[in-house]
Amino acid sequence: MDHQETAAEVGRLLAKMRAAHPLVQNITNFVAMDIAANVLLAAGAAPAMVHAPEESPEFVRLAAALVVNTGTLSRTQAESMEVATIAARSHGTPWVLDPVGAGATRFRDETVQKLLRHRPMVIRGNASEIMAVARGAGLTLETARPRGVDSANTTDEAEALARLLARHCFCIVAATGAVDVVTDGKRMIRLANGSPLMTRVTALGCALSALVGAFVGLGEDPFIATVAALAIYGVAGEIAAETARGPGSFRVEFIDCLDRIGPDDVKARLKLA
Amino acid sequence: MDHQETAAEVGRLLAKMRAAHPLVQNITNFVAMDIAANVLLAAGAAPAMVHAPEESPEFVRLAAALVVNTGTLSRTQAESMEVATIAARSHGTPWVLDPVGAGATRFRDETVQKLLRHRPMVIRGNASEIMAVARGAGLTLETARPRGVDSANTTDEAEALARLLARHCFCIVAATGAVDVVTDGKRMIRLANGSPLMTRVTALGCALSALVGAFVGLGEDPFIATVAALAIYGVAGEIAAETARGPGSFRVEFIDCLDRIGPDDVKARLKLA
Amino acid sequence: MDHQETAAEVGRLLAKMRAAHPLVQNITNFVAMDIAANVLLAAGAAPAMVHAPEESPEFVRLAAALVVNTGTLSRTQAESMEVATIAARSHGTPWVLDPVGAGATRFRDETVQKLLRHRPMVIRGNASEIMAVARGAGLTLETARPRGVDSANTTDEAEALARLLARHCFCIVAATGAVDVVTDGKRMIRLANGSPLMTRVTALGCALSALVGAFVGLGEDPFIATVAALAIYGVAGEIAAETARGPGSFRVEFIDCLDRIGPDDVKARLKLA
Question: Which residues of chain C have a CB within 8 Å of the CB of B76?
Fold first, then answer.
């Protein structure tokens, strides 16, 4: 797909989202709950934060997608993620994994690796998290490339590991940052929208994973759905940054922009790198 | 009470709230905590989020009202709600039930039905939640009306079930939406203020339940106290929507409006349907 | 230190913060998580909310400081605070205690007194909380002063107990309010910046404790680091209040101000009482 086709597809999915209002169930961290719910509402989706193991698998029946985020992991949340992702897989409901803090503690790494068995449709994280998940799954660049590429820079390394992880898990992998990379193991798209202010507001990455859930909940090609979520997020961030006076007003403007953004904004501003 | 008397009573209770600063204890969901606390502060009340079963009943002694919300229910929270509502009843402290997601899972329905035994002073939810609570309590329209009214539209049905539920529980029931309905089983008031933007910000319904708690904590007629909370909320939402540019700025304006709103705004804008 | 020297030191630490981006681990309450993380980001620090006992001690290795806050205490959180503060002490990582609600329930008081054994570097609370912690530790004014000073006003009493508590725990104590008091048991500084709007936004006190963590995480004299956090917070609050239209817009402006504030603002506005 070239730039114009990608922008058109993103615009089409955005319109579909606003007509369908997919219900997105989140088992997410306590920092992200407010902003993730407001991002989903602004973009046209319907949020539900349902995390107790006593009800999370039952609630999956009602949801178009499930999003699992390890940001403030607890024993009970890990248990809930386990039973809810099993339910999602058995219902054929797509689910998104946001492995927040992967690599920081054994508890997170073990939880993330267990969850991989239940087949996420998308894994979204920053470069370090994606690399930690890939390494935790036993993937190294040596398995894919000849030795001698140790000088590969971090971005290249993240891209290569993202591709390996996507193939290993049969899923979409999105490593986001100044440039976002999305791959299904074969296709790869790089997006370059956004603003440095997006790193100055807490949990905006987590809220992006929730939005990826909303887009894959539309039931179309998950690769382009993931691209759509990232594109809309980046373009809205770019527009919001033009009038924000700091991270406080940026957060407010960003939600307003997500609400207002349309296919024309995507067409005019989408940057593929 | 006619329109003018209602507006006068609401204005009087608002002034009393700002003098009394009632302490409202909340056992609420994690999405609502921030916005509910800020709504209470803006309206003149004092929030406390105290949910551990180890301390929630002890804290009830200090509170003017308790608000219980099932939005992100967990086993531990359900246990805490049980012991805290028992303490509230034994202290004569009014408590408000917000049965978020009633009807969605068995866990919520069972928890809500157990809590009803401890006599909430007010139940506030959207139409579906109120109907789910009423049905869970074994109430059906057939017990009140002859068969053959199946064509009753949803609003009518919610109103009829709200009235039955209020009688069954000896409490106030408020079903909120584009039009809010408040009933004590005999009296019924319909309020028509507000803005569609209020559905685009997460947890504004939960925060309204917290505000109902603040008003019933003033120790006056709980029916008019509930009407006062809904009236002030709706009028503030209406004013805020006039300058908001989207759901992000609406949230900010709404808190500013709740802080500024006075009896004259209520008098000028209150709409009874 | 006179006024000019204090302002210069605060400015120097602020510049250091923005270069060092210290990672601050928080075991905090659910109301404060969003605002505390955004305050840390705006001031130049890096927040992490990591509270499960399964990983909180392991995460301490990575953090420049740990902040423990009892605002929505639970059995599991208390357990996590215990093991994380032990880890902090053993790693030589400074930690800050915010004893929210001390004096309100036995559960909080017992938890706070247990934590004192693991040597917080700073205790920050409002006057009532600091007095409750001091009394829980068995400190009374009689131990320091002759009987007959019962007419001491509350501020004096809080100051005297803060000083005793600082000596008892070998730490810094900050009692914040309209006037903030910081003492290490010998030195005492009173700061008089800020705005009444700061009490109208939930969890701004909790977020201040997080910022104290960021400053003591710079590894300098914890007394002046605590003064720096309070000074910057108060000055930013004062600037934000000049353009805010209510508590909603104040919160937004405040984060923007924390992001923009520089040594010159501190120099021009710092008020020592």
Answer: 74
